[in-house]
Amino acid sequence: MRKSKQVWIFIYAALGVMFVYNLLPFFWMVISSFKTELEVISYPATLLPNEFTTGAYEKIWLQEGFLLYFKNSLIVSLSTAALSSLVGIFAGYGFSRFRFPGRLTLMTAFLATQMIPGVLLVGPYFKMLTIAGLYNTLFGLILAQTSITLPFSVWMMKGYMDTVPIEIDQAAEVDGASRLQTMFLCIVPLVLPGLVATTIFAFLLSWGDLLWALCLISEQSKQTITLGITQLVGQFRVQWSEIMAATVIASIIPATLYLILQRYLVQGFAEAAVKE
């Protein structure tokens, strides 16, 4: 019993250290966002602000155009998540319920695309979007990011739909339901945790993207919030308090989304791991 108690003490101590290690950067970011420019770069650093100020937030929203960047990020991320999840539902259902020539090859190709570093695809995407007239458009950025998140969505939804008995489809067909009615009314509600997990994954990946937005967007009015934050880093001056404030603002949406849907997210990934 003494040995067991020592093991649990060690486990809780390790978890406490990990908790502090992961929380400290976020704490420092929030605290620094309420400091003045001089206090942020002062040495030695202060743990709490000597002069509490919201000037960085006011400047971000009123002067730096972050409201527009925030709106662009929201449009791109929501559209990417919705499009990726919708196509993932159709493709996952097709791979799960139908047997057709080239099925395994196509599924392998989907999986193989995840092994290619995204930076290697920037050039081809830039060329294709330019030819199609979609360069420097939010729609082009949405298509590019959807193509990155789609393979994960397809495999995730296919794995979940494989666990739903085929008898449910047959019973719905006997009752006169079409394929679409069967899929949306009978199958999708049963794989809701997996759908939520794929949607959140696509949203968070799109929200935090910098590489694709940097290469496919050049007009300032169409930039996302990640690009807006990079503009605060100048050649001769780094606006640390504003960077921290902008990062806090950018973290609100994904943090809130995770807190609200964390039960579905954890359940979705946990059950997917068991199924695999």
**Oligomer description:** single chain
CATH topology: MetI-like fold
Helix count, DSSP H or I runs of 4 or more residues: 13
CATH hierarchy class name: Mainly Alpha
Tally of individual domains: 1
Structural class: mainly alpha
- Please give the radius of gyration in angstroms: 23 Å
What is the CATH superfamily?
MetI-like
Order of helices and strands: HHHHHHHHHHHHH
Shape: globular
The counted number of beta strands is 0
CATH architecture descriptor text? Orthogonal Bundle
β-sheet strand percentage: under 5%
Helix content: over 70%
Uncertain segments are: none
Terminal Cα span:
37 Å
Mean pLDDT: 84
What summary fits the major beta sheet?
Answer: none
